[in-house]
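Usage example:
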Amino acid sequence: MSKILHQLIVDLGERSYPIIIGQGLLGEVDLTPYVTGSQVMIVTNETVAPLYQDKARECFPGKCVDLVTLPDGEKYKDWQTLNLIFDGLLEKRHTRKTTLVALGGGVVGDMGGFAAACYQRGVPFIQIPTTLLSQVDSSVGGKTGINHPLGKNMIGAFHQPEAVLIDTNSLKTLPSREVSAGLAEVIKYGLIRDPGFLDWLEVNMGRLVALEDEAVGQAIFRSCTCKAEVVAKDEREGGLRAILNLGHTFGHAIETFSGYGNWLHGEAVGVGMIMAADLSAREGTITREERARVARLVSLAGLPERPPEGMTPDDFMNLMAVDKKNVDGQLRLVLLRAMGDAVVTADAAVENLSATLAGFCRH
Ligand SMILES: NC(=O)c1ccc[n+]([C@@H]2O[C@H](COP(=O)([O-])OP(=O)(O)OC[C@H]3O[C@@H](n4cnc5c(N)ncnc54)[C@H](O)[C@@H]3O)[C@@H](O)[C@H]2O)c1
Ligand SMILES: O=C(O)C(=O)C[C@@H](O)[C@H](O)[C@H](O)COP(=O)(O)O
Ligand SMILES: [Zn+2]
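Running the assembly step on the lines above writes:
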């Protein structure tokens, strides 16, 4: 039985779109109102295709539906693999009226969205996220792209979807390591904007790790609400949106250092948020107890608390030097002004940053 639990709108004027959240929605919800032409191309990967492609096809009755299956993994979030999507579109003669559908986790979502932004100078797309991370974060907001060996998500475009369909039942096949990775981004929302959500997470983390339906539905709804509000205020990251990058300056450095896919995005962001909290405590904006509270939450989610063995402060500094938030060569970090309140700043004292890096790189 299918049940829509929540529906919200990302309010972007003529580019507004719904996020439909519920149980058993795949195969039950008719998505053709969000499709303009007669053709649909589902972009997915070799893990997700056998699990969900049949149900996904059923969301597009009366349409001509094709499928491109990508290899699975963050290491394939690159130019070469992106090109497989264009190959499939051209081989099947998809026109500029086609609609792409990204069916999978954040990797498929970011690549499918970027392909949609580029193909014949831009075609519409729909997000059907199937990991917790993609349901709480990557499917919303229109950031799309691929990695470069020298930096995460360095090539991409802002391209908003027509709709986001979140079926929480798809999480039942997700490995527990991936559930924990998704919880890192959930914790992020509490830290940047919603102190009440932080309190709730402390009480309910066990239920989330165990994927209890009611708790997971709540966490997805609150996360998407927070992201939708921030994106509606600052679609292209002119200012406020950068708070969604809490933990990512350190986290992206960890992902690039360790080789894409060895550390999951959520794992790297979890450590990055503890590092950002540590630096905030050194800057005096939160207490040492609050810093410990962040580490505890990350650990409760089943995530690592320290960067990879062998990563040095210099590795961090070199990789963070290409961070997209930097301006005129100045490192800008998202720090906590208080628990539940984040700010982007270039003003962290160099000696405090050095102390944070030294503390975390001591193994
Ligand atoms: N665009 C954004 O705003 C944004 C936000 C956050 C993260 N991201 C990006 O998202 C990516 C991470 O996304 P992710 O954590 O979803 O990883 P992922 O896409 O690699 O998916 C994780 C794993 O789960 C598998 N999988 C997906 N759905 C499944 C299901 N229902 N059952 C079983 N297995 C399933 C995938 O095949 C993969 O092996 C990173 O590249 C990150 O940079 C983008
Ligand atoms: O949507 C955003 O904005 C975010 O920053 C969300 C992040 O969780 C996500 O990982 C995003 O892809 C990072 O963007 P980037 O611009 O730092 O590459
Ligand atoms: Zn992220």
